[in-house]
Amino acid sequence: xxxxDYDLLIIGSGPGGQSAALKAAALGKRVGLIERKPxxxxxxxxxxxIPSKALREAAYLxxxxxxxxxxxxxxxxxxxxxxxLSEAVACEKRVIESQESLLLSQLMAAGVTLLPGDAAFYxxxxxxxxxxxxxxxxxRAGIIILATGSRPRRPADVPFxxxxxxxxxxxxxxxxxxxxxxxxxxxxIACEFATLFAPLGVQVQLVDAHExxxxxxxxxIQHDLEEQLLDMGIQLxxxxxxxxxQREGERVLTxxxxxxxxxxxxxxxxxxxxxxxxxxxxDAAGLTADDHGWVRINENFQTAQRHxxxxxxxxxxxxxxxTAMEQGRVAVNHAFAHENAHPAGQLPxxxxxxxxxxxxxxxxxxxxxxxxxxxxGRARFSETARGQxxxxxxxxxxxxxxRGSHTILGVHIIGESASELIHVGQMAMNCHATVDVLANxxxxxxxxxxxxxxxxxxxxxxL
Length: 463
What we know:
Layout: E1 6-11, H1 15-26, E2 31-35, H2 42-46, H3 49-62, H4 84-110, E3 113-116, E4 118-123, E5 126-130, E6 136-146, E7 150-152, E8 165-166, E9 180-184, H5 188-197, E10 203-208, H6 219-231, E11 235-238, E12 242-248, E13 251-256, E14 261-264, E15 266-269, E16 273-275, H7 282-285, E17 308-310, H8 321-335, E18 349-351, E19 357-361, H9 364-369, E20 374-380, H10 385-390, E21 396-402, E22 408-414, H11 418-430, H12 435-439, H13 450-462
Parallel strand pairs: 1-2, 1-6, 2-3, 6-17, 8-15, 9-10, 9-15, 10-11
Antiparallel strand pairs: 4-5, 5-6, 7-16, 12-13, 13-14, 18-19, 19-22, 20-21, 21-22
Helix pairs in contact: 1-4, 1-8, 3-4, 3-5
């Protein structure tokens, strides 16, 4: 066998890359982690997940939506100041710095070698690394994992300028709240930013070609979210396309296919993301991207070159930090023939809009398409004592349960703490528990988690 510099080389230090590095190091492997940016954590930590969720938390706490129920007694009144963003960004930076420091400590303690610079394939087992000082070195590894993430899609006909026409990275650099914001898109990123700015007094408009936002969700979840968007004052232009975007002085003019023109301070273009493959020289590795720019992988995240794996955003949907971490673990276990080289089971999805959305398992649409016999159990947050205390007027949970076996097929939640509550349903599904287990469980009182028991009892009444 030819000698290798490393057992494993990973390109990208985001959630997937760091998970793979720590797992391989725990198996006693020689691991090199390559990062081209002067900081660790990738998009998730630096310009995506953590910054946007930190700002979302600040926006939620500063808005009237956190001041219901008993919280009215302590909720600050008055208009959100225009310098709110600059203060929130300062707090956000402290969170990022703390997380980066923790990550660095974990990698160093595990014995992972950090390799700063730009990497590209020289041949299928060799990478050329251009270091920050300009020098180039070549590194060989038996296994290579690509975890370089994705970037916002930036069509040539959209006049991005880093001032008023922005993508999801640029909008996080705003220092002051705009008066008006137009969001182009109806997916996760679009909805998260729309509900981040609207509660702060920004006039938000959202334009999307689909009939409903978050088109892949069940209709009742969609409708509830849309009602809450409207309640925030967000103007929805659904089944509408953008024909032209242009900057005129300090304003952005957006022409729609319904002959209407919208004039705003800031435009956020949030229609999709693209994989970061451009600098990797895939041809030298014997890999080819398809017509949409993606490299095909199998269920083990392997490419056609079996020693090269792709994880995280590069692997396509669902493009979540949590799934990237799991993919890193699975890829390393598979690469080194370790036990547990298979996914952990049902993976939860979370959307950090206001209100939060989260789900695990199948949707009603999917069950209907495959002809499944099922019942739906529902429970509303407002019917629980905790919901009344916090003023949760609209949140709800639904359980999808198979008629014959009582198996839990899906859990869907909209409302406060949905991203936390979903894990009870996820664990139940991964343990193959029936809905009877939830119905017979005892939950702390008062909690929103009691909705599991109420929804389970609703299912059993139907069954």
